[in-house]
């Protein structure tokens, strides 16, 4: 009976770091550093401590820890367009990775509005936010001004390429190489007149993908003439309009590489409305591997972005910038070319 009473007393009180240390088989100091996400704790130890904390019923007082560390433990994620189907999956992985690192996220739908985004920047500079995750080429002007003046700010861009000299860390794929791989595949299928449905001409991803198209055509000895380039956009309606125009043309391309999957969806719909079959009359390929691409009629050849890895590595990189003041750098991840029926010559 006395033993049972001692156990009841132990369970009745709040678990301590000493309890976690005893369960995990490490020191209380190691537990403290692991729960705070501080180095030099190995991933294996961090996971063991996290499991021990869960078994003990220990919950980190994040508010108290934030006051102690003089940090908000909040990362700002700037989203230019929540209607873009690229972002929900990315955001889910960002949120999970941030939580695992002991951070919350604040999502700001900027809609490329400088006045709105500058309000969030003011909060960052005042200490109400710890760092910023950019998910597009756009960066708030106030941040760019500070960076140009030599300030080192915890900012990471993912999903969209970051030029190396601009003072912002990045997690991205090689957009030009990925586009090259798509067009190289089309050329190897025997298509000779390969058109490109380009994105907005000032968008950095659209520029990189156009360069990949041009380089692949050049390497295969094929023409990249102006009649094979269509400046459109990233939306379904942009692709639909291009498909309708191409359907009226007397000199059809053999294949079309679209700058993203959304425009490819619209293109295929526009071609079908004009009585053209994909891939029998025109092959089509996209970029992004959105959720509907695998079930489209026909399934779409495209480039798969490693969104989960992009999200995780960008969050980890941002945490390192916040907590350890690490240097800015660019991480290039591998893409994957998914070959499906839309580009296979029958």
TrEMBL record:
Q: What is the lineage of its organism?
A: Bacteria, Pseudomonadati, Pseudomonadota, Alphaproteobacteria, Hyphomicrobiales
Q: Which UniProt keywords apply?
A: DNA-binding, Repressor, Transcription, Transcription regulation
Which residues belong to any copy of the HTH lacI-type domain? Answer: 15-69
InterPro entries linked? HTH_LacI, LacI/GalR-like_sensor, Lambda_DNA-bd_dom_sf, Peripla_BP_I
Extract the SMART domains matched here. Answer: HTH_LACI
Keyword Membrane tagged: no
Q: Does the keyword Transmembrane apply?
A: no
- What is the protein name stated in its UniProt record? LacI family DNA-binding transcriptional regulator
Lineage, top-rank taxon, reads Bacteria
Task: List the GO molecular function terms.
Answer: DNA binding
